[in-house]
Design goal:
It is an enzyme of class 2 (transferase). It comes from Chloropsis hardwickii. S-adenosyl-L-methionine binds at residues 16-27, 56, 77, 121-122, 139. Belongs to the class I-like SAM-binding methyltransferase superfamily. TPMT family. The chain has 196 residues and is α/β, with parallel strands linked by helices. The chain has a single domain (4-195), classed as Vaccinia Virus protein VP39 (Rossmann fold, 3-Layer(aba) Sandwich), CATH 3.40.50. Helices cover 31% and strands 21% of the residues. The chain has helices spanning 13-22, 34-38, 40-44, 62-68, 80-89, 127-130, 150-160, 188-195, and strands spanning 51-54, 72-77, 94-98, 106-110, 115-119, 133-139, 161-170. The chain has a seven-stranded mixed beta sheet with strand order 3-4-5-2-1-6-7. The protein is globular, with a radius of gyration of 16 Å. The model has no long low-confidence stretch (mean pLDDT 97). The structure holds S-adenosyl-L-homocysteine (SAH). S-adenosyl-L-homocysteine binds next to helix 1 and strand 2.
Length: 196
């Protein structure tokens, strides 16, 4: 099908903040994603104590789940409300500190230290700030990125992962002429083009 109808669409950060403010967050799910449960072994590949990245994390409940398994979770999210809701909804105490390398950014960290959520745009991050990751859970992330920013997003993600990392990506398939997105329709050919 033709993705041309979505190519020009842009959702601004301000619009995302508004969605959170209005409670317009149908993308958030209270239950763990069935595909993460199904492919958890692929993500972990027999390893423990991984560093796992959640791009465009929202308040994804899977962050708590993976942290409870002993992994170290890092997320990035523009909405401070989402980040604070995550910690309060899981009754997790946290502290908040500025990120010296990124003006205006804050990092929220669980007191136990195993969940760190950066409140800023993902495009402000680099491996010199957040390090590299052994695993990525990309759900509602690539498909939420504006089509014009996909290349930049993919290049950044490639930079943020270790050589022996696993990257789980969830996309949705539908007729892009019938919905404007997000989530945007990202065909497999596009994923191959972006990630090789
Ligand atoms: N992955 C989450 C949220 C998906 S919705 C989940 O599975 O529930 C996409 C999220 O990305 C929204 O919470 C939005 O506020 C956030 N977002 C949008 N653009 C962003 C950007 N450039 N940097 C960081 N977060 C962003």
């Amino acid at each position: 099908s033709d993705v041309g109808s979505q190519k020009e669409r842009v959702v601004t950060e301000e619009e995302w903040l508004q969605k959170w403010e209005m409670g317009n967050i149908g993308f958030h799910k209270e239950q763990r994603h069935p595909l993460l449960q199904k492919y958890l072994d692929v993500l972990l590949n027999g390893r423990s104590g991984l560093r796992i990245f959640f791009p465009l994390c929202g308040k994804a409940v899977e962050m708590k789940w993976l942290a409870d398994m002993g992994h170290s979770v890092v997320g990035v999210e523009v909405s401070e409300q989402a980040v604070k809701d995550f910690f309060s909804e899981h009754s997790l105490p946290y502290c908040e500190e500025p990120v010296p390398e990124i003006s205006g950014a804050k990092m929220f960290q669980s007191t136990s230290g195993n969940i760190s959520l950066y409140c800023c745009s993902i495009y402000d991050l680099s491996s010199s700030i957040v390090g590299k990751f052994d695993g990525v859970w990309d759900r509602g992330a690539l498909v939420a990125v504006n089509p014009c920013d996909r290349q930049r997003y993919a290049s950044l993600m490639i930079n943020l992962v270790e050589k022996n990392s696993s990257y789980l990506l969830v996309t949705v398939s539908y007729d892009p002429n019938k919905h404007k997105g997000p989530p945007f329709y990202v065909p497999e050919s596009e994923i191959k083009r972006l990630f090789g």
